[in-house]
């Protein structure tokens, strides 16, 4: 169904709607985490499609869009941190965001709750070392100190 929608609509039309569907309470939330392999398969498919749409999007440049996408992916990764397919699909979406705009992606990642950020750091360290280094460099920047005369 997502493939058909992608053929008929532009990624910039589908992307916000897919994120909205993923965020709808009861469709893809932590209460449905135990509902079996069908739900996990649907989540993996949504995250994979999300990565494809991010790559294809022409209008993805707003800070709010990046924060919304990162928050959505991080929430799924937190809920399903033990599922390798979701880990890889979620990380692929974050990498696609990074490839669109490194600064906005890192800024969005740094505003995540610490548990979600730590999960993303661990996954990046395991599967995507360049991203892990970029996150580490961004989050450990030394604060600018005021000159004292």
What would a concise description of this structure say?
With 149 residues, the protein is mainly α. The protein is 72% helix and 0% strand.
Description:
The protein has 149 residues and is an all-alpha fold. The chain has one domain. 72% of the residues lie in helices and 0% in strands. Helix 3 runs parallel beside helix 5, helix 4 packs antiparallel against helix 5 and helix 6 crosses helix 8. The longest helix has 20 residues, at 37-56. The model is unreliable at 25-33 (pLDDT under 50).
Radius of gyration: 16 Å
Major sheet: none
Count of distinct structural domains: 1
Contiguous runs where pLDDT drops below 50 for at least 5 residues: 25-33
What's the total helix number? 8
Shape: globular
User: Which whole number gives the mean pLDDT?
Assistant: 80
Secondary structure class reads mainly alpha
User: Helix share of residues?
Assistant: over 70%
First-residue to last-residue Cα separation: 65 Å
Percent range for β-strand residues: under 5%
Order of helices and strands: HHHHHHHH
Number of E-type strands: 0
Task: Give the arrangement of secondary structure elements.
Elements: H1 2-8, H2 11-23, H3 37-56, H4 63-79, H5 84-100, H6 102-110, H7 114-127, H8 129-139
Helix pairs in contact: 2-3, 2-4, 3-5, 4-5, 4-6, 4-7, 5-6, 6-8, 7-8
